[in-house]
């Protein structure tokens, strides 16, 4: 017996199939949008040529997919220059998509501020699309990345985000910078400011001369407590002093809101209070835990900074160790 489907049933089945396909497509698009690590963070025009995306102030986790820094980019007459693109290939792809909404210029250069992977591992996405991209960094960053720090940061980001950064590969910088070096890219001049030991031994800051913008990397924080495990209070304070003297009007910190030179002054003040108070209390033979309430009282204006309660004890201990070796 031959089985046939009546026309009205065929029409109903086709309609149902189309509806299911639309639903599947809608769910897929929604999921893709929700997985975009930059979705909640708008692109901000900072000056004539400079743009930035302000990341969250929390630490890398599954929810933020490892996005926590402030990626920036400069659009020149012919190209795009990216600074600290972020921590994963996924973030890098999202950053590229953002840039493409603004300009058709290709990304030709990337500048990395230091070795901490939340700032530079997203270079992977850029190098895949633009294999000839020139990547600049402090020579010590290149050395440390080659020696295993790059792979170590891949593992760290993967663990912190519960696999959200999977697939990211280490892409090493191609060009070592020198202190005070000016790199001319089309109509834009980028001046590098290197230090021997500040936030780390690998730090570079970038001054966009035409825009009077300074990109500090993690030499500068705003409204978020720093990590100084690899750094120096004295060195970071000196870096802030040098930065304040620069011909700049806008500061893009490694983490936290963008502003003017007041960011540099406030951060220098935070570090100075902790370090000087630690030395004072050491002269009184106080232990780190005894210093803590005294120093917290001195830091009243910083108590609302993200991570204050969680990090102030460790920051005091780090200051004690440095002061003992001064």
Short description:
The chain has 326 residues and is α/β, with parallel strands linked by helices. It has helices at residues 7-35, 89-102, 123-129, 139-160, 233-244, 262-283, 288-298, 308-324; strands at 43-45, 50-53, 72-75, 80-83, 107-111, 134-137, 175-176, 182-185, 188-194, 204-208, 213-221, 250-255. The strands form 2 sheets. The protein has a 7-stranded mixed beta sheet. Strands 8-9-10-11-12 form a 5-stranded mixed beta sheet, with helices on one face.
Explain the overall architecture.
The structure is a single chain. This protein has 326 residues and is an alpha/beta fold. Strand 3 and strand 4 form a beta hairpin. Helix 6 packs antiparallel against helix 7, helix 6 packs across helix 8 and helix 7 crosses helix 8.
């Amino acid at each position: 017996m031959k089985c046939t489907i009546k026309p009205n049933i065929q029409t109903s089945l086709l309609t149902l199939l189309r509806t299911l396909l639309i639903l599947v497509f809608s769910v897929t698009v929604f999921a893709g949008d929700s997985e975009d690590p930059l979705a909640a963070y708008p692109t901000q025009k900072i000056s004539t040529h400079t743009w930035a995306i302000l990341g969250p102030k929390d630490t890398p986790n599954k929810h933020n997919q490892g996005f926590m820094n402030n990626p920036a980019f400069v659009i020149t007459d012919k190209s795009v220059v990216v600074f600290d693109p972020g921590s994963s290939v996924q973030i890098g792809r999202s950053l590229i998509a953002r840039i493409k909404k603004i300009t058709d210029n290709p990304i030709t250069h990337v500048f990395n501020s230091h070795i901490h992977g939340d700032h530079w591992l997203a270079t992977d996405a850029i190098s895949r699309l633009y294999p000839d991209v020139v990547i600049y960094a402090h020579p010590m960053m290149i050395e440390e990345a080659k020696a295993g720090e790059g792979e170590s940061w891949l593992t760290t980001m993967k663990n912190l985000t519960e696999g959200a950064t999977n697939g990211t590969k280490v892409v090493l910088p191609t060009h070592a910078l020198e202190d005070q070096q000016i790199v001319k890219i089309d109509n834009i001049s980028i001046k590098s400011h290197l230090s021997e030991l500040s936030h780390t031994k690998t730090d570079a800051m970038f001054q966009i001369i035409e825009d009077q913008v300074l990109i500090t990397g993690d030499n500068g924080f705003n409204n978020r407590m720093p990590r100084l495990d690899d750094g120096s209070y004295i060195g970071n304070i000196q870096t802030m002093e040098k930065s304040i003297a620069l011909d700049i009007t806008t500061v893009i910190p490694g983490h936290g809101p963008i502003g003017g030179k007041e960011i540099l002054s406030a951060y220098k003040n935070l570090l100075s209070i902790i370090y000087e108070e630690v030395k004072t209390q050491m002269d009184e033979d106080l232990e780190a835990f005894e210093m803590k309430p005294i120093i917290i009282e001195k830091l009243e204006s910083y108590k609302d900074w993200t991570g204050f309660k969680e990090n102030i004890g460790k920051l005091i201990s780090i200051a004690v160790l440095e002061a003992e070796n001064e």
